[in-house]
Design a protein that fits this description.
Blueprint lengths: L6 E10 L3 E7 H7 L2 H4 L21 H18 L9 H13 L8 H8 L3 H10 L3 H9 L3 H9 L6 H7 L5 H14 L8 H6 L1 E4 L2 E5 L3 H19 L2 H23 L11 H4 L6 H6 L2 H11 L5 H12 L4 E4 L3 H13 L4 H4 L1 E7 L14 E3 L5 E3 H4 L1 H8 L3 E8 L8
Parallel strand pairs: 4-7
Antiparallel strand pairs: 1-2, 3-4, 5-9, 6-9, 7-8
Helix pairs in contact: 1-4, 3-4, 3-10, 4-8, 4-9, 5-13, 6-8, 10-12, 13-17, 16-17
Amino acid sequence: MSNNFKKCHELKVMRDPVHGYINVEYQIIWDLINAPEFQRLRRIHQLGGTYQVYHGAEHSRFSHSVGVYELVRNIIEKVAGLKDVLSEFEVVALLCAGLLHDVGHGPFSHAFEAVTSVNHEEFTDRIILEDTHINKILRETSEDLPQLVADIIAHRAERKLLTQIISSQLDADRMDYLLRDSYFTGVSYGEFDLNRIIRTLKVVDDRIVVKESGIHAVEDYIMARYQMYWQVYLHPTSRSFEMILLALFKRMRDLTLEDRNAMDSISFIKPFVSKGDISLKAHYQLDESTCLSGFMTLTECDDPILRDLSSRLLNRDLFKYQDVLDNDQMESIVASVRNLGYDPEYYVIQDYTTQILYMPYEEGVDSGIWVQMKDGSLVELSKASSIVHGFATGNMKEDSKVFFPDKVRTEI
């Protein structure tokens, strides 16, 4: 196992609005950034349809991924005791995992997964382990590297400390997207003291814990997550966009089941709306630019439902929404939509969502944030913070809405 990883002939830097600079020391990181599968992330919005509400939210999965890499690099450099317990091989694997953790994402963020049953984590695993440019770059550095990088991202790594840095309740992924999404949406909900949190982290028993002096900074971080979810990520207008996307893909899937040639005009969509294996090539070719081009083609297709739904997406003519109260209300909405001439199968969509703010430790479950108290003892965060205890033991916040058109639409 190599412990002599090639460095760039000079430090590479990329300007970043959140972290100031993205610093690249290892050649493998620079090569991965320039790999086609990673460059594809430039063509995928970080926040799916949220730019329909917050027009500045045009940032990409690419910018988030290099941000997570930079945060991982900072954590390794600054968390007390961390560099001492990591080999160079593990350091490089962590940097690669931070960079590549979202490389399997499809267009329109998580909405795409809901409508196609394509799991971005599965494709991330495949892109790292199968025959791709990224796999080749990793293998040329070390034959063992692709597997460890994939295992860290997929929570399979034997050493839990490695995964904790990338994916836990206090990780580089969450910390970057809260700050980045807050910046680009123009809100302050996601702001917290990143530097303070990193300064109060340390390694104890091969686990990263928070010093007692960092509790307040972590409380702010958890509250930032809460506010961002309900004010930004789960905004009903953004969800309306996603519901139309859901209906559009459902219609394409239903038509394909009736006639396998139905989607020939946008053939790149076909693997995602028909049952069967999806190749890595098909996944690579599908980004938001190809989807939007396909939707434009559908605005002139023969099927009136596809024409209408694709035009709504392109022109932001979104569904109305209201809270779901009872069955009588739903029946009234269905009848109203049918009277307008729309098929409720595609034009009345219920969406239930909830968010778990913080998951305390459970026996046998790798969860929870641990705090080292002044006396040296380790205490789970919900027992060390009355604020977090209230979140962990209180009622889960839920939201159920129905989305539907409330007027006849004139085709453009």
